[in-house]
Specification:
- The structure is a single chain.
- The chain is an alpha+beta fold.
- It has a single domain, classed as Alpha-Beta Plaits (2-Layer Sandwich).
- It is built from 2 helices and 4 strands; from the N terminus they run βαββαβ.
């Protein structure tokens, strides 16, 4: 399942790259792209576990930028 999400309070391009790397390592994630300029996350992941994967992705984002939210 491939979906796109707006990101709120993503303030650092370097942090976005770190988030992207960490999210790509989550089991069930096929691909992920975070655009700092567009403030957008595009993720392709296992449809059966999509909600769980998105929860883990939010934790990964919060690790680098505590105020950053993936708007679902």
């Amino acid at each position: 399942m491939r979906k796109s999400f707006k990101m709120q309070d993503l303030d650092c391009a370097n942090c976005a790259a770190k988030m992207e790397r960490e999210i790509s390592g989550i089991e069930g994630v096929n691909s992920v792209s975070i655009s700092f300029m567009a403030q957008k996350l595009i993720i392709d992941a296992d449809a059966q576990r999509f909600d769980e994967i998105m929860d883990l992705a939010q934790k990964a984002c919060s690790k680098y930028e505590p105020d950053c939210l993936i708007l679902r």
